[in-house]
Fold these 3 entries.
Entry 1:
Amino acid sequence: MALAVLTGQLTVGWSNDFIDRDRDRLAERTDKPIPAGLIPAPVVRNSAVVAAAACAPLSLLSGWRAAAVHLVAVGAALCYNTWLKRTVFSVVPYIVAFALLPAFVTLGAARHRWPPTWTMLAAALLGAGAHFLNTLPDLAADARTGVRGLSHRCGPTGSVLIGGTLLGAALATVAAAPDESLDAAAVCLVVAGSVAVGGVIATALVGRARLAWNLALAAAGLTVALYLVRGV
């Protein structure tokens, strides 16, 4: 399961770098290996193809139900790379892919069950929040190269507020899950997650987009940790 997710992520990441190589050059993205001249574009393309070829059989090791769900999630991410990132529907692949990840886990278990609805909802909220915050550092460069996704149309301030709210909603969804009351560890995680979400909004509004993204990752990690601690 871990290897299937890893190869799926490599497929998405490497294909994104290959597809956006010309845009990255125009935007002078020296942090990207292709425009920086560190790796030839065909090597990245071939690596993405190999990763995709490995993702399918690795996913099937968890059974056809889980494999179907995981491959739909990876396919949604590839649709974002190739087309949807430029449209008002750019958030949809994030919602779909994140929501299906817990289903990949539970459908691959012995009873092949779908996860509780609130679990998929929390994951979808995390994904949607990630979309609005992930694009913040690149809004100016994207505008120069013709990318106009939903977050671009909302603008920097709107994206910050929407993204932060969605991350907070994901944390609240897990905290309010139908289970026994929160223990001390869970309360600490809720507080830490809330501080991280507040930090996301505060740092993004003062122009620290990279720090805001790092805090968004922390908020997502704390939400997942809360889910695991609760044992639901």
Entry 2:
Amino acid sequence: MALRTGEADAAGFTAVRLVSGAVALIVISYFFNKGSSKNAINGTWSSAFFLFAYAICFSFAYVGLTAATGALILFSSVQFTMILVALYRGERLGRLEWLGLLVALGGLVYLQLPGLSSPPLFASLLMIAAGIAWGFYTLRGKGSADPLRDTTGNFIRAVPMIAIAVIPFFSQITLSSRGIVLAILSGAIASGVGRIDCSSRLR
């Protein structure tokens, strides 16, 4: 809604998205860890890099892709990444995993069928990179003992990365009021709150 309508540029949208996600998670972490001896954040720089890479590639890719095409490429790439890593580690895949791999491959092949309008190559490659980054971010977070602290720390560490990345695009940043609101919703709600599992803390 923001990137395809000119309400926000890719760099500005990503910056607001990651910063708002970090702020929302800091607030949530404060209340959940209030009175606790634990530190409010955790996470790692490598996980933060994959988070940043996903977010920046995602935004620039969607400038040239429709929502449906982008989602298909993104989730197919995530699926491919996680299953191929599992195979590399010597894990045996079940029927559902093999089915997921075939569906992901089929979706990408479908985009190239004769008679269809193939998506722009550069935008598609950016979305594939976003999917790979998100796949590795997910794999690194697998088995996290404290998803809230880890996610908060990763978002905080991603902020200086996006601050550096937007420097070349600073003069081109375009953010309308609606674009800012959409970026905040994407960061604080969809990317921040939506990526954590607070169930164990809400019992």
Entry 3:
Amino acid sequence: MTFTPYIYKEIKTLKLVDIGNWDYSYKYADRSFMTNLLSENKDFDEVIMTQHGFITDCTIANLIFWDGANWFTSSTPLLKGTKRQQLLDKQEVMETQIRIEDLGKYEGVCLINAFRDLSVTSLQPVSVIVK
């Protein structure tokens, strides 16, 4: 078994990338697909993966969107992360379909995972997302 230390990555720029039918229902040790996505988009800190016009996740986290009053997460994530599920269970976040064209409904996006908490201070404006 190999452990890799988590290195906090500051995210300021995001790019939408269509990933076709790629499946990541379970967490795998082989992250080469995601590593390649980042390598192909070096001008951006992170990519937001999309499938069939729907927002899924980024390579390191689930996504939570802020509409000015409430938090929402995509109902079409690639991986149903534990932090995401915890926020849904506590009803701090609502699940909904988020299409690419829906991004204008939101003010910001927050990246969450086991090491990244939901916080207004880590909110990025949706305007930093490049289509």
